[in-house]
Specification:
Length: about 140
């Protein structure tokens, strides 16, 4: 059932609300955002198997550190919020992706100091990973 003023489309015999498309796109942006955060955080561990990923991972890590250290907002966040507003006007509903994904991306009580600490931990963690990869690569060159 549609309320007056709700956008709707008829495709064949199926009728659906256009605002749901925006909500689904917003959920897709959240999933993409989570995947990017995971890649930034743990992507270095994939370099042994796929060394070419380094060319994507290093800029991604740099972006993650800059965002955390400067307090900038990732462009995916306003995109997600815009899509939600287009969908139904609510910035957040509580579906699976948001309930679990948004807590990962935007923990409650995160302060500027917390962001700087997270960025620093990200840097240290990735320096350790890249150091281990470099050490292994250097040993393999000397042996072989």
């Amino acid at each position: 059932m549609f309320l007056p003023g709700q956008a709707r489309m008829v495709v064949g015999l199926t009728e659906f609300r256009v605002d749901m498309v925006f909500i689904l796109l917003a959920d897709l942006v959240v999933a993409l955002h989570i995947a990017f955060v995971c890649f930034v955080t743990l992507g270095g561990l994939m370099l042994r198997r796929w060394p070419g990923l380094m060319w994507l991972h290093v800029p991604a890590v740099c972006w993650g550190i800059v965002v955390e250290w400067t307090g900038k907002v990732c462009p995916l966040t306003p995109l997600e919020n815009w899509l939600r507003r287009q969908g139904d006007g609510a910035v957040y509903d509580y579906d699976f992706v948001e309930r679990y994904g948004l807590l990962l991306l935007y923990p409650e009580g995160l302060t500027r100091l917390g962001q700087v600490v997270l960025g620093s931990l990200l840097l240290v963690f990735n320096l350790i990973i890249y150091g281990a990869i470099w050490r292994r690569y250097s040993r393999e060159r000397h042996i072989g």
